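Quick one:
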Amino acid sequence: MNRARNNAGSYLMAVVMACSTPAVWAEEQAHFNPQNHERTQQLVDELMAEGLPEAWLTETFNQAKFNQGVLDAMEGAAERRLSWHEYSAIFMTEQRIEEGAAFVQEHVDTLARAEEVYGVPSEVIAAIIGVETYYGRHKGRHRVLDSLATLAFHHPVRGDFFRGELAAFLQIAHEQRVEPTSLYGSYAGAMGYPQFIPTSYQAYAVDFDGDGIRDLWENPVDAIGSVANYFAEHGWQRDSAIYHPASGPTSPPEGLTFNQTRSPTVTVAEATSAGIEPGVALEPTLQVVPLVLELADGSNLYRLGEYNFYVITRYNHSHLYAMAVAELSDAIEQRIEDQG
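Output:
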């Protein structure tokens, strides 16, 4: 009797699923259909005014799918939940260092040209691409169209920001004649080797190989030039350091603002007066970012970031991110030197 009841229940469930699933799929597929979604239609109208064809926009939005996982991922970014020793362990691995050195050797001429043009060292460019996509190996598993449509119309706080990114993405895809549904990236809509968001793609991507196309998805040459250009446009100081080692008390002293992602405002003299001693001789008037990083044993590691540290935080507004890029850069440079 129980088996018969279970079989009957299973049959009923199968019937319900068979009847309802196509409707659910249809609703999911048509979630951003301009005919049913007023805010999508408003964006279509705006983009049409800028020259994008209505039929292409409508077809694109009809293929966009809502993705709850994207909204969930926005709440759990590693930069907001990990301490330094946990965060750095993700990137400071033997394999990532070794492959970073190999990436530099493979693209040595392109990186040298980027450094000459923009003033950004080869190992820094490599470290950015290494942190972002493991040198192009992991460019993201989310359809950019779905991520940005979901965030533009459903993020509770930053919807307007992502609406602008969605518009920029569609402009890029149409300009470069790329099928929007074929492009994958991060849950936040970052794309290609360097994980540029669409507005950064528009503003800072360069055609570094001169083929007439700014391709950050498949072309490492364009990616290298674009990362260097991004930093140069944000004020990278040629031949200046990123950070300096320092020492300090067991607990961070009061009176200093640590780990800021704003332009440096604290002088070396002020940091020293508060008990943070630079490990090398620095001009007392040099403005720095005081950094305190938690190690696995609970102790603190002190450093003083220069303006270039701040520039790296323009890429990702996190002191942990900037420090990881700086350390990976140092490790890649040392590995290349060791290899002779």
